[in-house]
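sry for the spam today, last one i promise. C-alpha cells for design, 154 residues
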C-alpha cells in the first residue's frame, strides 16, 4: 500500500514539474534587453498649451451606453439594449460644466409588427439637453438626456 502511494506521489510530482516547463524550451545564451533604464514620462503640464487642453478636458462628457465619456458626440443611443431610439447628426450649440445643448435627428423604430420588421421614423431638429454631470472613474459625465423637454434617460 505504501509503495503504491509513494509511486502515485512520484508520478504527480513528475507531472507537476513537467507542467511548469514550457514545451519545446531551448536554452539560449541570448538575452532580451528590457527598458528599465528609461525614465517615466511626467504628467505635470509643461506649457500654457498643455494647461488649456487640461481645462477643456475638465468639462463633462457623455457616456453613450458603454465606454468613457466623450465630449460632443455625433450620436447618442436612447435605447442601449436594442438601439431602436437614436439621436443622430447632433449639432452642439453649447457645452458647459453644467449642461450641453444641441439639435439632432431622432430615429426611432416603431417595432411593428416586431423590431426586426419595424419602420424607422425620423424627426428632424429635436432639441437635446444633457445635464446632471457626475464624476466617474473615467471622468465627469452627463447623466440625464432630455429630448424636446422630455427627460428620456435619467
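last one done:
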Amino acid at each position: 500500500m505504501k509503495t503504491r502511494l509513494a509511486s502515485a506521489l512520484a508520478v504527480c510530482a513528475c507531472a507537476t514539474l513537467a507542467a511548469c516547463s514550457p514545451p519545446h524550451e531551448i536554452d539560449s545564451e541570448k538575452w532580451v534587453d528590457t527598458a528599465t533604464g528609461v525614465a517615466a514620462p511626467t504628467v505635470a503640464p509643461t506649457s500654457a498649451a498643455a494647461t488649456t487642453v487640461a481645462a477643456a478636458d475638465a468639462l463633462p462628457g457623455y457616456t453613450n451606453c458603454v465606454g468613457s465619456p466623450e465630449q460632443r458626440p455625433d450620436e447618442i443611443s436612447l435605447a442601449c439594449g436594442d438601439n431602436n431610439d437614436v439621436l443622430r447628426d447632433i449639432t452642439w450649440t453649447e457645452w458647459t460644466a453644467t449642461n450641453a445643448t444641441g439639435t439632432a435627428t431622432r430615429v426611432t423604430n416603431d417595432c411593428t409588427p416586431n423590431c426586426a420588421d419595424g419602420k424607422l421614423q425620423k424627426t428632424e431638429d429635436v432639441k437635446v439637453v444633457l445635464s446632471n454631470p457626475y464624476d466617474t472613474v473615467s471622468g465627469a459625465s452627463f447623466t440625464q438626456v432630455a429630448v424636446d423637454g422630455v427627460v428620456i434617460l435619467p
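Residues 72-153 form one domain. ok im logging off now
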